[in-house]
Amino acid sequence: MTLQSERKFEDRLQVVKDLLARNEDVALNEYIQQLHPADVAEILLKLDYEDQEKFFSILSWEQASRVLEEVDSETFTSLIGILKKEQKTLILDQMSQDDMVDLLADLSEEKRKEIISLLDLENAQEVRELLVYQEDTAGGIMTKDFIAVRKDITVYQAIEDLRESAGDAETVYYVYVVDNEERLVGVLSLRELIVSKPNKLIEDIMHEQVISVNLDTDQEEVARLVAKYDLLAIPVVDKDNKLMGIITVDDIIDVIEEEATEDIYKFAGTSEIEYTDEDKLSSRIYASVKSRLPWLIITMFGGLLSAKVIGSYEAALNKNTSIALFMPLLAGMGGNVGTQSSTLTVRGIAMGNIKGKEVLKTLLQEFSVGFLVGLVCSIIAALLSLVVQGDIALSIVVGIAMWANMITAASIGTLVPLVFKRIGVDPAVASAPFISTTIDITGLSIYFTLTTILLNKFIL
Amino acid sequence: MTLQSERKFEDRLQVVKDLLARNEDVALNEYIQQLHPADVAEILLKLDYEDQEKFFSILSWEQASRVLEEVDSETFTSLIGILKKEQKTLILDQMSQDDMVDLLADLSEEKRKEIISLLDLENAQEVRELLVYQEDTAGGIMTKDFIAVRKDITVYQAIEDLRESAGDAETVYYVYVVDNEERLVGVLSLRELIVSKPNKLIEDIMHEQVISVNLDTDQEEVARLVAKYDLLAIPVVDKDNKLMGIITVDDIIDVIEEEATEDIYKFAGTSEIEYTDEDKLSSRIYASVKSRLPWLIITMFGGLLSAKVIGSYEAALNKNTSIALFMPLLAGMGGNVGTQSSTLTVRGIAMGNIKGKEVLKTLLQEFSVGFLVGLVCSIIAALLSLVVQGDIALSIVVGIAMWANMITAASIGTLVPLVFKRIGVDPAVASAPFISTTIDITGLSIYFTLTTILLNKFIL
């Protein structure tokens, strides 16, 4: 598996399509066996419905459950639909619990019940419990497939237990240690277990300092802890410190990517739009409009406010329409430097770099940056507007307005996310429309005030 | 370790400061032992220089090396400086190779040589080899601390080897299998090794399908593979398939966060600004100005182009200055919807969701979204501008211009990143300034053309 993965994918898809067309089930089965379940799922998703059915029926039970872990809930239901009842039970019970819960969370109540009824009793009970937790909390992303041993058994016993039960567990890189009331009291790496003397007691070799999270810990905080402490899994405990589940690092990676996407979308003034390959274009468009329109309408009122501002200076505009020429330039440059400042600030807050004393330092820094880049830009703008329009007085006004505007914009872009953070509003969500509107209005006010004062004095 | 981590940090810092002030070395040492190295490093970084020295000298060798892995290169050199030579060697040899290489890469040639000369011969040689690779490739982020066994030994022998050598290796969750020319031929999980019969041969139980990357594979591609296949580590091979190193999932998390930050910054028109807590404010400001100014200057030329466009319609403006009132509204709304479209497209490309047939579908989708949100916004804009200005003809022009503008902006916002991707330019880096300028100019042209045609016909 190297860089040419996209090319490889097309090749594989072609091979599968050919073998399906020629009904070469045995050859196809052999071919699939060499592939990773994630690749098999990718191929499956690109086949049409009949081929999907045929292809899925060729998979072994083990493969089928691994593949189901990788698909979206719609494909999941349609694939499950083509199985016989006893097959369903076998395949579903093999699936990883956290992936199963994610899929079920997207289904209707009825569909969900139907699928849970197919699971074995213990698994069904656990899945039901997991479905209770909020999707973006530790409880919502954890799995109950973990290994825990009692603190009072020996290393030898622990290894024997592991041999018997490890098949089930999603990760056995950490062995969690509990007391006789299931409370989390320690942790061991599998390696430490293996290199220890067989007759030692677990409690004598375990680490007592365990980094854990609560059921309701936000998934972003969970990700932060896993990243900070370089963990492969993190245990989840309830309020009595009872071990309830674990979250593995592969799910943490998903959380990190999800949160980054969310932040990026919020900057652009759109909430996350969830759609899959299978969705119809019309429902994708509907979802997109629904998440984007509110932001656009909010900013439109901001735009109308700027119209009001300009309107109040219409007399000046009437005297010298050239003033209008540089309005987009000034508003645009203010917007650009403001976006830079707010992006750096919002990301800095999200990454935990701006707190305590750093807040004042950040403000001072952004003000200074606005001062410097504003100075450079205003000189260039004044010179170029002189070339474009040939009006010295206007060029001076444009230059000064640009400078004042950029300093203000950088300061507003920094201040707004900081204030929002302080009053408990998500800085990412609120900053983009609020900042662009504020900057537009202050920028235009600065420009027109300067125009009125300076141009009146010196020329008009 | 729960949610109150920020509060906890302040408490810990205070405890450490108090103990340092009272010179209670023994108590301090006991206190530190309960903490994770990442927490110890965090505390260390917040102390002033003298306290840092004192604090660091209290750490055990093992702790000192774990802490050094967590600090930046500046702190690293200053802390190393306070150690005696034999201490240096001991502590440096304990450090994880990939972290050490990251630190060394930021130092001067001279400093780097000095530190490498303190390492034991084998480690020094390996570190020198790692320093050759580009920082953002697999070679640049891999470690040579891995476990590999020959395919022709038994499970028993392999476990014995592991017991002896595992102390060194950064991860022993996967055991890589090589042939007698060091070529990667298979992989085993530690768990599989333990549950296998001791007299079996490794080659009979290993998986032959190993997902690996080359030395020069881009780190973003490495992250994509690790995320896709849910790996805890990925092996790195040279062109002859010889096993050269591994990359562990904790480093992959760093890569994912780094790349997300980079993308977010590029959107805002600024390259990544790397600075640490220790940097002086002046150097932070300098770094920030340097990375932001080029983008601002580029967009300024765009702003002057819009001035040119408005200038060519100055006659229309002279007749009716009210036209100027709605320029910021129109330009702003075009910019907003364009940013939404370009953000969704750029992120879609980065996440691998837009390829092949999806390209056309995405374009069609964004065009439709522009059409629909544009329709809603243009009706609202027309009505509100009527309220604000009371000019029916102008309101109609504003409405139509808004609609046309938003459809165009959504299409441009989608098309530009797609085209940039096709011609091999990073969509994230080039889109923001290019798109905002293009949209400003097309938006104003649409507005003025419509104004000239419609207002002339019906009113003026």
From TrEMBL, chains A, B:
GO cellular component: plasma membrane
Keywords: CBS domain, Cell membrane, Magnesium, Membrane, Metal-binding, Transmembrane, Transmembrane helix, Transport
A Pfam match: CBS
Topology in membrane: Multi-pass membrane protein
Locations listed in the record: Cell membrane; Membrane
Domain named CBS: residues: 142-205, 206-262
Any one GO MF annotation of this record: magnesium ion transmembrane transporter activity
Membrane-spanning ranges: 367-388, 394-420, 432-455
Statement: the UniProt record of this protein carries the keyword Transmembrane: yes
Keyword Magnesium: yes
PROSITE patterns in alphabetical order: CBS
CDD domains from the UniProt entry: CBS_pair_Mg_transporter
InterPro entries for the chain: CBS_dom (IPR000644), CBS_dom_sf (IPR046342), Mg_transptr_MgtE_intracell_dom (IPR006668), MgtE_N_sf (IPR038076), MgtE_transporter (IPR006669), SLC41_membr_dom (IPR006667), SLC41_membr_dom_sf (IPR036739)
Description of how the protein assembles with itself and partners: Homodimer.
Function: Acts as a magnesium transporter.
PANTHER family associated with the record: MAGNESIUM TRANSPORTER MGTE
Family of the protein in this entry: Belongs to the SLC41A transporter family.
NCBIfam families linked: mgtE
Protein name, per record: Magnesium transporter MgtE
